[in-house]
Amino acid sequence: MNTARHLPKSLFSRLTLFLLGAFFVLHTLTILTVADFFERHLVQNMLANHSATIALCVRMLEAEPAQDRPALVSSLAKISEVSITTLDKKPDMPQGQDKLSRFFLDHIKEALDDMSVPGQKPRALQAQVQVIVLGKESGEWASFFEKFFSLWDVSGSFLAHLTVQLTDGTWLNITYAGPGHRAHLEDMPYLVLALEFFVFAALLILIVYRLVRPLRSLAKAAESFGLNQGVPYMVPDEGPSEVRHAAQAFNAMQERIRGVMEERERMFAALSHDLRTPLTRMRLRLESAPGGEFKQKMLEDVHSLHSIVEMGTAMTLCERHVEDPTRTDIQAFLEAIVEDRREMGQNVLMTAEPDTALSALIFPVALRRCLDNLLDNALRYGQEAVLAASVLRRPGEKLVLRIDIDDKGPGIDPALLEKVFEPFFRVEGSRNRHTGGHGLGLSIAQGMAGMHRGTLNLSNLPQGGLRARLELPLVEGRPA
After folding, report:
1. Number of C-alpha atoms within 13 angstroms, CB side, residue 138?
2. Would you say the pTM of this structure is higher than 0.70?
3. Any idea which fold 219-302 has?
4. pLDDT digits (tens, 9 = 90+) for 158-174
5. Which of 262, 267, 397, 408 could form an S-S bond across to 382 if both were Cys, CB 3.0 to 4.6 Å?
């Protein structure tokens, strides 16, 4: 049985739960230990105090003639808490070996010795003390579980048994029943205990929160940096030394990564700028050259080189996309994209489930660019695109926007479905090589999906064609 799945997910909740549980166990053990200590001393004091009374009863019965002892026994029973029975032979009761029994026996011996006349031989004595817990005898003392559950036992008591032989050979069986003064449930100071627990719980929650807060800041910074690397999110340098060291390392890592990306961006910008000028000169010279098939092919190559430069620069910029999330009506956003395509004369259809009529935080420019690239691919290879949108509810009540874009093209070899996301990779076997493109559209679309913490997957349809499935977790999704 996997118990981890029943535990809270967050570190704050787990630490709070475990520490409160440990405090509850410690608090309970402390109460039981204190109750046991005071109870043991109370019982010992009661036994010591009644030892003199029992010794006096023994001395009075010993001085009384045998025929008058029953009347004296009845009188003693009325005026004391001691029950006495006279016997002709020794009763079958073993000597108790526990501490309470030995304690009781020692005090009885001491009291009888104080009342004995000089030269009197010691009497035969046996003592046994039994504590009554939950309606049963428990020997010397209650076990831990008996002690815990005895808090609910309002009838807790103890029995002290004593057998003593008189000088004439008669045996006395003496029983003393006394309350254990156990800390019963109704006697517990509820208000004090509850106040202690809630004060400790409040302090514990505050301490755990302050310990976990730097980790939350670190996680938020990592998530923010992963989604939008153009905006720095510096982690506060606070908390324990280990957390401060992690925050400093993360901030330094951000700066290094951002520096590398900015350097690469500058390099691509410079490369693009340097290539545009010679490409423009080549295009102008070719346009002024005599016509012919060779000229047309050269112009196509120059145009292709210019497009590759532009797409490479665009891909570099999209990796460091700077855009603030905006609350957007999802269904209206998708309908606007489809309507723009229709106005351009493109064959694009849309089906949307009613649950897509909600607003959520998205990067609208990035998402539109992602969908435009997918629609361009579908129209380029399939002449028709069908966009289907729906909202899924995943475990944990998380909303996920699913967008499927289907075409009627030739599809892709299953072995290449993952490879097509690599930059500049084009499928020549399953796609027409004369349809254009440079193999960057899907790579850019996947990057834009990752910016939304989403996924982009391709699959071949059974009836033919390709399906691009985009799934994006919706942040703060609510009805539009």
Report:
1. 17
2. no
3. Helix Hairpins (1.10.287)
4. 677 788 888 777 888 88
5. 408
